[in-house]
Amino acid sequence: MKDQLQVLEKEALQKIEDADSLKELQDVRVAYLGKKGPITEVLKGMGKLSKEERPVIGELANTVRGNVAEALNRKKADIEAVELEKQLAEETIDVTLPGRPVPTGGPHLLTSIVEEIEDLFIGMGFEVREGPEVETDYYNFEALNLPKGHPARDMQDSFYITEDILLRTHTSPVQARTMNMIKGERPVKMICPGKVYRRDTDDATHSHQFTQIEGLYVDKHVQMSDLKGVLDRFAKQMFGEDREIRLRPSFFPFTEPSVEMDISCKVCHGKGCSVCKKTGWIEILGAGMVHPRVLEMAGYDPDIYSGFAFGMGPERIAMLKYGVDDIRHFYTNDIRFLKQYHQA
After folding, report:
1. Distance of CA 328 to the CA centre of its chain
2. Distance separating alpha carbons of residues 144 and 244, to the nearest angstrom
3. Tens-place pLDDT, residues 182-201
4. Which three-class secondary structure state does DSSP give residue 84?
5. Which one is predicted more confidently, 175 or 59?
6. At 70, is the pLDDT very low, low, confident or very high (cuts 50, 70, 90)?
7. Whole-Å CA distances, 271 to 237, 262, 264
8. DSSP symbols for 238-269
9. Spatial separation of the C-alpha atoms in residues 339 and 283, rounded to whole Å
10. 247 within 8 A of 260, measured Cβ to Cβ
11. pTM (2 decimals)?
């Protein structure tokens, strides 16, 4: 049995030496030190030995197991070191090579336009307010002088959820909510940007969802001349100092008097061309003096307070400013189109 243990040790050490991979090394470990390995089998036969031989063979068996285990650990460390060196050589990075550029995006054109308009009006003392897109019938219509059955409601086909809940058709409810919250206790000067929804058929100039920015200024002694001055500054800031504006009489239920604002055509400079349909002017937004009834419903005394309101579509502003011919370009997520305006 002593000779058998020495032979097994010699065989195991030789196979360990010949192993070239961790897998081969593990196979040797299982073959010689496993529960069914030859060294274990030899130890099982110690019961047949005399009392004098058992301690000698037991000590030798433990020595053989220790030598084999130690040789396995050394060989494992050697193989792991070789494999690490190989991996490092294969994965070497030349830090002197130029790096690959990381593509960067930019804000959506509509986002840029909205932020530009916000910055302009903030500079004139307006604050930015937001409100819910799912709105009540009261704030969307009644608080804006559009009671149930009013014929003007026919102009805005809406997405109703219930009889009293709908997707807002304009951002004017934010104005009504703000005035109702203040209850006529102080002036208000605000703009309210956001998404609105109407049952329009999508085409080059219409969409069932679009953005809108409305403005409101209520204070003592606010006049139409104040409105014209604000809109003139807006037009020149957005489209160039050489642009002129004109106000045409119009109708909106929540303003009286009401106007449409046009800007002079940048292509023909007011002389008339195909872009402006030979008129020299391009319609840009609607505005007017806040209706006394709207002020009264919000808690303001119309004999003391007056105000003006206006509303514009950032899509139309962007289309006119950058020559975009189809509103659907803003919503189809075509990177080729959007990336043209990352520096806008």
Report:
1. 20
2. 30
3. 988 899 999 999 999 988 88
4. helix
5. 175
6. confident
7. 22, 14, 9
8. HH-TT--EEEEEEEETTEEEEEEEEEE-TTTT
9. 28
10. yes
11. 0.68
